[in-house]
Write a structure and sequence with these properties.
Strand 4 and strand 5 form a beta hairpin. The chain starts with 20 loop residues before the first strand and ends with a helix. It is built from six helices and five strands. The chain has a five-stranded antiparallel β-sheet. The protein has one domain (18-123). The chain has helices at residues 38-44, 51-54, 56-65, 99-105, 107-118, 121-127; strands at 21-26, 30-35, 69-73, 79-83, 88-91. It has 130 residues and is α+β, with helices and mostly antiparallel strands.
């Protein structure tokens, strides 16, 4: 018997967080986005131990260097944070993890992101719910 997925995990990016984020991908399985403010970083990093999710100064320090990209798995509720400028990739417990390993385990996510970035702008906006 299959356990139903909690509805909270299937929720979309909240209306008040969406303008403060750049939503890169929104599928049944994944939410991928770039928080643009500490408020958005707190939502994207909820239930994690990331300093960028709980400390405005840490968020702005990282954000000034370059974007933080957050991957939220909607079914398991796991989260990962990538800071491309520094090459840091962290899990929800704030431990460094392997970006290469993550990409290797998630080929469907990688394909969806590649498709989103290579799609024409009008098609991309439709997929993002705008």
């Amino acid at each position: 018997m299959t356990t139903p997925v909690p509805l909270l995990l299937l929720a979309r990016v909240p209306v008040d967080i969406r303008p403060e984020s750049l939503v890169l991908l929104e599928t049944d399985e994944w939410l991928v986005g770039v928080p643009l403010t500490p408020w958005a970083a707190a939502w994207w990093g909820s239930f994690t131990q990331w300093c960028t999710a709980i400390d405005d100064g840490a968020f702005w320090s990282s954000h000034r260097q370059g974007p933080l990209i957050v991957f939220r798995h909607r079914v398991s509720s796991y989260r990962w944070q990538l800071h491309p400028v520094t090459g840091e990739f962290r899990d929800c417990r704030n431990r460094r993890v392997s970006w290469r390993g993550f990409v290797g385990r998630e080929p469907v996510l990688v394909a969806a992101l590649a498709s989103a970035f290579h799609a024409p702008l009008s098609e991309r906006q439709g997929r993002l719910g705008r």
